[in-house]
Amino acid sequence: MALEGSLTDFGLADILQLIYFQRKTGVLTLTGRMDRIRLLFVEGKITGAESKRRTDDNRLGKILLKKGFIKEDDLQAILEEQKKTDAKIGILLIRKGLVEQAIIHEILTSQISETVIQLFGWKQGTYEFTAQGIPLDKELDLSLDTQQLLMDGLRIVDEWTLIKGKIAFDTLFNRTNAEDMQLNEDEKEILSYVDGENDVSTIIDLAGRDNFLVSKTLLSLLDKGIIEIIEPVIVSDEIDALDVADRWNLIKYLTPGAMLISLLLSVVAMLLQPQGAYYREYRASVKIGELRAGIETYKIEHGTYPAVLDAISVSRDPWQRPYIYRVADQSFILLSLGADGKEGTADDVY
Fold first, then answer.
1. Which one of 93, 119, 148 terminates a domain?
2. What is the CATH number of the domain that holds 310?
């Protein structure tokens, strides 16, 4: 099944859920007005995120340096070695014994999370998923729970609506010459990371605090005139509240196991969203996942797979056709014929 199209027709929540439920391995490329981001997946879990606008290796080195985990000379030596070997900075630092693996893991996990979460604000852009093998860094073992990121994405997008259009994750600040006024402890800490080089996302990493708390504190410092924006970023089209359809479509899969609620919300989502091809494929893939679970449960209870799918469900696919089900030896085949109604074609949904 091809997975590409416009984010206007098929939102990020739908795409991530589809990849997660089908346990896909490959690269999801999202191209927007401000950035191009590649998300790496292994069996449905996110193992990496790459942004065209900024290099995570450079951010990692800056954060480690600012936090005092490495010295400037060590970082420069690692950067020179990286040019020759093309290895990642984190891996080289671990191999040289300069930084503990746990520290690198924590910072990179935070960076991946921030990259994914900011994508929830994209209302326009294109996406394309390419199935391919993804090499794993055994020394880092990065693997993020897609479901948890969906929950975080919903919460943070809601919070960011309060500061929409004022600052973004890549906004840069400088301190002003304003007289020091009484600041609370949070403001003092966040202000210490403002140096004209650290953008919002880097300050979040340095502070090790919640995204919204750091952003809100920066906004407070900005309103008080203690800091000023160096390079204003156009963000009004990128960070926005989820519309009603997006909100229902995301919430309905945040409680996998509550089947009744999932089914009821699916009906609501059907009424709220246009019935495009990708949306129907998505619904078919989710239903197939539920049917597979029922089939496996049947085998546990009866010692064999059901002879016909009607023993589990009489559901039809989104094109109002019966799902194809066949038992073969010690396994089974389950699929939807997709839009064309023909088996063995590219739009079959498994």
1. 148
2. 3.30.700.10
Which phi and psi (to 5°) does residue 234 adopt?
-75, 115
Residue pair 13/277 in contact by the 8 Å Cβ criterion: no
Number of domains composing the chain: 4
Q: Using CA atoms, how far apart are residues 217 and 190, in angstroms rounded to an integer?
A: 7
Higher pLDDT residue, 273 or 116? 116
Range with top average pLDDT, 260-264, 276-280, 290-294: 290-294
At how many degrees (to 10) do helices 277-302 and 259-272 cross? 160
The pTM score is: 0.53
Q: Which residues of 216-253 are buried (b: 16+ CB within 10 A; e: fewer)?
A: bbbebbbeeebbeeeeebebeebbbebeeebbbbbbbb
pLDDT digits (tens, 9 = 90+) for 51-89: 877 665 667 888 888 788 888 888 888 888 888 887 888
Which distant-in-sequence residues (6+ apart) come within 8 Å of 168 by Cβ? Answer: 200, 233, 235, 238, 239
Q: Is residue 20 part of a domain?
A: yes
Strand-pairing partners, residue 132, are: none
Q: How far apart are CA 347 and CA 350, in angstroms?
A: 10
CA distance 206 to 128: 33
**DSSP bridge partners of 27:** 40, 130
Residue 279 lies inside a defined structural domain of this protein: no
What digits encode the pLDDT tens for the residues 197-243? 888 878 887 887 767 778 888 988 988 889 998 854 443 334 343 44
